[in-house]
UniProtKB/TrEMBL annotation:
Any one Pfam family match given in the protein's UniProt record, by short name: Aminotran_1_2
Keyword Disulfide bond: no
Family as reported in the entry's similarity comment: Belongs to the class-I pyridoxal-phosphate-dependent aminotransferase family.
Keyword Aminoacyl-tRNA synthetase included in the entry's annotation: no
Domain Aminotransferase class I/classII large as annotated: residue spans: 29-377
Gene Ontology MF terms in the entry: kynurenine-oxoglutarate transaminase activity; pyridoxal phosphate binding
Co-factor requirement: pyridoxal 5'-phosphate
Protein name: Methionine aminotransferase
Gene3D superfamilies: Aspartate Aminotransferase, domain 1, Type I PLP-dependent aspartate aminotransferase-like (Major domain)
Swiss-Prot/TrEMBL keywords: Aminotransferase, Pyridoxal phosphate, Transferase
Domain of life: Bacteria
PANTHER family, alphabetized: FI04487P
Length: 381
């Protein structure tokens, strides 16, 4: 038997697994991996329990439970004034990562080029390469991580088939502006380019910033797969429930992939979420909830030697340590975990060439006591 050849030879254990394992071993406060440090609403748990006990335990429809698809369509129309037909344009998935993979797979063929804004969430590039695509990187730099649209324009070729968007952005927290949408629309308007928009943090943005979904722009909406997540919104990352909104033609191709990835997603939880979405307060209060946590964490390190600009969205805060040490961000992240007991993520891992701007990412989706203890430890550095 011949040697086994990997399709992703450069992929190893993710940094999130590495840092969380290290945090557990060191007994450190884990502000590395992006999951809430508190439970979801008891009301949501009660709804799941209800559907578990009343017989909703067999396969859901491949496209998702009708009540949940209808609730998603209604929510999207109420928030953004955009109508997606629940039968033909809304699909429930097993997490947003599955939605992203299915959307990329539906579009990309061998040799196609994909514009990726980096630092980038780590599932994008493997999905592109598994489908024979070629990632083309547009590098965003601190402190603003603003997009240079002239650079994007210069990267587009006849082979460009897809652009991946992420707003609010992981790991930098940047939120797209109205100008960003207009610039992107002008680029793709007369080209055969599709868009995958990762909007899992849509409800987590700060200082009065609106979420500008790509669904709200007519030129973009007709060529975009909008991928979302209940996990980030309702503190249920372990339930792995996501969704994709896309025009009928795109949804048809998306579902051809989705049905052979997971076919359908856990049934009682879908019914529970459909009921839970009926109260908009469950997601409308999120910006204030997380903004207070962001501010609490930043106040706790304000006397330290870390530099920062308050994050615009997501539940991540990046900080610069240029005034502290010349260590690589990876080495410092490991040292902070072991020596002062706070785990973070080195932002270089989100860059293709491991660009090291001496920035660490901290997750502030934790209880207040945890954030204050972490801030106290970090301030000792």
């Amino acid at each position: 038997m011949g040697a086994f050849t990997s399709k992703l030879p450069w992929v190893g254990t993710t940094i999130f697994t590495v840092m969380s394992k290290l945090a557990n071993e060191a007994g450190a406060i884990n502000l590395s991996q992006g999951f809430p440090g508190f439970d979801c609403s008891p009301d949501l748990v009660a709804l799941v329990e209800h559907y578990l006990k009343t017989g909703f335990n067999q396969y859901a429809p491949m496209t998702g439970v009708p009540a949940l698809r209808e609730a998603l369509a209604q929510k999207t129309e109420q928030l953004y004034g955009v109508c997606y037909h629940p039968e033909t344009e809304v699909t429930v998935t097993s997490g947003a990562t599955e939605a992203l993979f299915a959307a990329i797979t539906a579009v990309i063929r061998p040799g196609d080029e994909v514009i990726v804004f980096e630092p980038a969430y780590d599932s994008y590039v493997p999905a592109i390469e598994l489908n024979g695509g070629i990632p083309v990187f547009v590098t965003l730099t601190p402190p603003t991580y603003a997009i240079d649209w002239n650079t994007v324009r210069a990267k587009i070729t006849e082979k460009t088939r897809l652009i991946i968007v992420n707003t609010p952005h992981n790991p930098t927290g940047r939120v797209w502006t109205a100008d960003d949408l207009e610039q992107l629309a002008a680029l793709v308007k007369h080209r055969d380019i599709w868009i995958v928009s990762d909007e899992v943090y849509e409800h987590i943005r700060f200082d009065g910033r609106p979420h500008r979904s790509l669904a709200t722009h007519p030129v973009l909406q007709e060529r975009t797969f909008v991928c979302g997540s209940f996990g980030k919104t309702f503190h249920i990352t372990g339930w792995k429930i996501g969704y994709c909104l896309a025009p009928k033609e795109l949804t048809t191709e998306f579902r051809k992939i989705h049905q052979y990835l997971t076919f359908s997603t856990v049934t009682p939880i879908q019914h529970a979420l459909a009921d839970y979405l009926k109260n908009p307060e469950h997601y409308e209060t999120l910006p204030d909830f997380y903004e207070r946590k962001r501010d609490l964490f930043l106040d706790s390190i304000r006397g330290s030697r870390f530099g920062f600009q308050p994050t615009e969205g997501s539940f991540f805060q990046t900080v610069s340590y240029q005034a502290i040490t010349d260590e690589s961000d990876y080495d410092l992240a490991v040292r902070l975990t072991r020596e002062i007991g706070v785990a973070s993520i080195p932002v270089s891992v989100f860059y293709n060439q491991k660009n090291d701007y001496r920035i660490l990412r901290f997750c502030f989706a934790k209880d207040d006591e945890t954030l204050l203890r972490a801030g106290e430890r970090l301030s000792q550095l």
